[in-house]
Amino acid sequence: MPLLILDRDGVINHDSENYIRSLADWQPVKGSVESIARLSRAGFRVVIATNQSGLSRGYFTLDDLEAIHQHLCQLVEEQGGTVTGIFYCPHLPDEGCACRKPGTGLLDAIAAETGESVSGCYFVGDSLKDLQAARARDCQPVLVLTGKGEATLQQLQAGNAALRDPQSVPVYNDLAEFTRAILND
Ligand SMILES: [Mg+2]
Ligand SMILES: [Zn+2]
């Protein structure tokens, strides 16, 4: 079954400059949970790849993060879908880790754990970092306009984004619109 990779903040849930620190902060974007369930039911192995430097900043704990992810997985399961895995980078931007997007460590971990190539799979994100990581591993980057998406689109259109073939990145209003498009309804 093909992999389908999603960023979390700004794609599945509303993002915040103050970070998503607790279950109370975590508010799904309209239609996103249903979309993940539908993609899963349609045969995609849905995997999440998310930068969570707030862990290293001390804004929240691993327990807080796991509570959010359990809640998300449960909501998806209630609609008959499955989240195959959630991969996160806990590091600070200046730590020089391999996993913080635009680095590709999360994608490499997804490939290693699922035993599937990420090449050619959709990677839906709202930030340039997501699109760059996707390109670096030959995923099909997809931009949604929720979260930082509008600002990212302006960067792409201004031609000042460090991204190969920015004009070939498909753009959707949100995860629900992307899902309707690829499931043909
Ligand atoms: Mg994001
Ligand atoms: Zn990292």
Explain this structure.
By secondary structure, the protein is an alpha/beta fold. Strands 3-2-1-4-5-6 form a six-stranded parallel sheet, sandwiched between helices. Strand 1 (3-6), helix 1 (32-41) and strand 2 form a beta-alpha-beta unit. Helix content is 37%, strand content 16%. The mean pLDDT is 97. The chain has a single domain (3-182), classed as 3-Layer(aba) Sandwich (Rossmann fold). The two termini are 21 Å apart. It is built from seven helices and six strands; from the N terminus they run βαβααβαβαβαβα. Magnesium ion binds at residues 7, 9-11, 15, 125-127, 147. Residues 7, 9-11, 15, 125-127, 147 line the site of magnesium ion (MG). This is D,D-heptose 1,7-bisphosphate phosphatase. The record marks 100 as: Contributes to substrate recognition. It catalyses: D-glycero-beta-D-manno-heptose 1,7-bisphosphate + H2O = D-glycero-beta-D-manno-heptose 1-phosphate + phosphate.
Brief sketch in words of this structure:
The chain is α/β, with parallel strands linked by helices and 185 residues long.
Write the layout of secondary structure elements.
Elements: E1 3-6, H1 32-41, E2 45-51, H2 54-57, H3 62-78, E3 83-89, H4 105-114, E4 122-125, H5 128-136, E5 140-144, H6 149-158, E6 171-172, H7 175-182
Parallel strand pairs: 1-2, 1-4, 2-3, 4-5, 5-6
Helix pairs in contact: 1-3, 1-7
The structure holds magnesium ion and zinc ion.
Zinc ion binds at residues 89, 91, 97, 99-100.
Q: Which keywords apply here?
A:
185 residues; alpha/beta; binds magnesium ion; binds zinc ion
